Amino acid sequence: MSNTRKWYAVYTRPRTEKKVAEQLTRKGFETYAPLNRVVRQWSDRKKIIYEPLFTSYVFVRVEETELSNLRQADSAIVNLVYWLNKPAVIRDAEIDLIRRFLNEHTNVQVERTPIQVNDNIRVLGGPLMDQEGQVVSVQRKTVKVILPSLGYMMQAEINQRNLELLEPLSGSKATHREIYTSLRMVK
Q1: SS (H, E, C) the chain
Q2: Beta partners for 159?
């Protein structure tokens, strides 16, 4: 296995994650479609079922030169996931973390957060209302933001609901955000 292989995310048609992963694996690609163990209650019984953790996403480990072959490998693949106009690379450590987490827990929930590190924001409420700044870190309910003021940099923790995401300066948004930085996994 080559050291130049990296994990990329492909965006699939709805409810085709397992099929895409199986077909890509048969064609020689290394894939990972994280499946969440979920307990479902019916009127007469409980059953454990396996659902995709990330709907419409499958991770594929390939060399960058093989990316163009992915869409041709399965018609259910819509596109690669892009970040800053490049195919989004998912670190090995993040894939390993997802695997370990799913092995240890059932009924895992994934939640997207619209605010990420390095995003430009405007404060919508509170004493810093209408100030603009850049996100330094994102916690569960708060975001640390650097707010330039009077030639100094102030750092403030602000509740996420009081922030508005501003368009990037370049004017072009990524098709999809990096998956692993926008997740909150809960037992």
Answers
A1: CCCCCEEEEEEECCCCHHHHHHHHHHCCCEEECCEEEEEEECCCCEEEEEEECCCCEEEEEECHHHHHHHHHHCCCEEEECEECCEECEECHHHHHHHHHHHHHCCCCECCCCCCCCCCEEEECCCCCCCCEEEEEEECCCEEEEEEEECCEEEEEEEEHHHEEECCCCCCCCCCCCCCHHHCCCEC
A2: 142
Pairwise CA distance, residues 177 & 186, whole Å: 20
Higher pLDDT, 100 or 62: 62
**Whole-model pTM above 0.70?**
no
Give whichever of 53-67, 99-113, 165-179 has the largest mean pLDDT. Answer: 53-67
